[in-house]
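WARN no homologs supplied; continuing
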Amino acid sequence: MRSLHCRDAGFDCEGVIRAKSDEEVLNEAAQHAKEVHGVEATPEMQKDLQALIREE
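OK structure emitted
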């Protein structure tokens, strides 16, 4: 299982995105960023986020 902690991306948020693949994590993270934080995930942001994804 792959995971991304929203706080690691610099947000004051306890959200954790979990999925089977990095691609799924990034898709869910983009949706979370837009819905919760009002931020559009740019390609540059997704590249930075990919570096923060970890194996659980």
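The CA atoms of residues 10 and 35 lie 16 Å apart.
OK
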